[in-house]
């Protein structure tokens, strides 16, 4: 399958991982071949599914896990972690 890259991140934007932020995350994840998994409180969902991501109900300050597996995992993980760290462009 390729490389695996994972990390723990904090949701920093005031509105949390709401619909617009989730759409940005999922849209970016879908630009890569690697599988993307987002987790919170022991539940892990497909990071390429907007419904899955929204089901995590991540408010500001939530800690999430990001796991990316595949041949472009490094690039995908870096881009997704940067998006989350930048508050989805909302701060």
TrEMBL record:
The HPr domain, residue ranges: 4-91
A Pfam family matched in the record: PTS-HPr
UniProt-recorded Gene Ontology molecular function terms: transferase activity
Record flagged with keyword Membrane: no
Keywords: Cytoplasm, Phosphotransferase system, Transferase
Enzyme Commission number(s) of this protein: 2.7.11.-
Cellular location(s): Cytoplasm
GO CC annotation, single: cytoplasm
GO biological process: phosphoenolpyruvate-dependent sugar phosphotransferase system
PANTHER family for this protein: PHOSPHOCARRIER PROTEIN HPR (PTHR33705), PHOSPHOCARRIER PROTEIN NPR (PTHR33705:SF2)
Similarity annotation: Belongs to the HPr family.
NCBIfam families hit by this protein: PTS_HPr_family (TIGR01003)
Protein name: Phosphocarrier protein HPr
